[in-house]
Amino acid sequence: MKDLQTILDHTRRLVFFGGAGVSTESGIPDFRSADGLYRGEFEGIEPESILSLDYFCLHTESFFRFYRQYMVHPSAVPNAAHRKLAELERADLLRAVVTQNIDGLHRAAGNKRLYEVHGCVNDNVCMECGRHFPLSFIMETDGVPLCPCGGVVKPEVVLYGEPPDKYVVMGALREISSADTLIVAGTSLQVEPAASFIDHFDGKEMVVINRTPISAEDRATLVLRGSVSEVMGALRVP
Ligand code: NAD
Q1: Catalytic residue set
Q2: Closest ligand 1 atom, CA of 73?
Q3: Contact assessment for residue 183 and residue 17, using Cβ atoms and an 8 Å cutoff
Q4: Predicted confidence (pLDDT) per residue in 173-216, tens digit
Q5: 122 CB under 6 A from ligand 1?
Q6: For 114, which DSSP code?
Q7: Which of 4, 25, 31, 215 for mutating ligand 1's site (highest number of atoms within 8 Å of CB)?
Q8: CA dihedral angle for residue 159, residue 163, residue 167, residue 169, rounded to 10 degrees
Q9: 56 closest CA partner among 124, 136, 112, 109
Q10: Which of 140, 143, 85, 74 is nearest to 109 (CA)?
Q11: Which runs of E-coded beta strand occur in 38-178?
């Protein structure tokens, strides 16, 4: 912790790259931990298969049953890590949060320089006419949510088999490549292309905060094995 505080005190352009582990302490399960979503099955199918564009198109009703039950957490609120990142942005030290999360908790905490690489559950779009709908529309509909025009309303989340938005990717890479400190936290770095974004980091300090070992530790200048919210929450904003 002392080392991380020292790094932060000497940082001018901080970027935070995070994953599902940033939100587990808000009560949202990740995918690959011992109690993560990938340990179970849903209607006999692995969650990883359900979260694909193919499955969405071929088994839309089943997709939405899974999605409403496991992927949306309307009562979750930002934890100490989200709140500290918002404080660091207000202090103009944090240049950007690049997140793989779809839960919208960074925005809820107040971060604006935000790259949601896999989209967000709060935005939903008709696949026919492009009309946008709030999350409540998805949650209050039974079965497949349909637009008044008849089109299926799809959550703006990136499923396996779909590319991330190119402008979000370009922005995230620009921020990572110009950072002097990069914090990589709460991610197994198993999902591409997002996991490779950190290869574009060319700054001085790469800090890993994760409960389990991850590949980026080879390149890290500091590894903190522990809880993201405890570590981030304890930081003093310089
Ligand atoms: P992952 O489940 O593959 O890995 C999570 C990592 O975080 C693990 O290494 C785990 O040990 C670590 N971790 C869990 N809780 C932690 C904590 N409190 N403190 C420190 N470390 C902790 O998640 P991923 O790498 O983000 O990739 C999976 C994909 O899952 C992402 O693309 C994301 O879109 C999606 N996802 C998002 C959410 C969400 O929006 N909250 C939840 C589940 C999955």
Answers
A1: 118
A2: 41
A3: yes
A4: 999 999 999 999 999 999 999 899 999 999 999 999 999 999 99
A5: no
A6: E
A7: 31
A8: 90
A9: 124
A10: 85
A11: 94-99, 114-116, 119-126, 132-133, 153-157
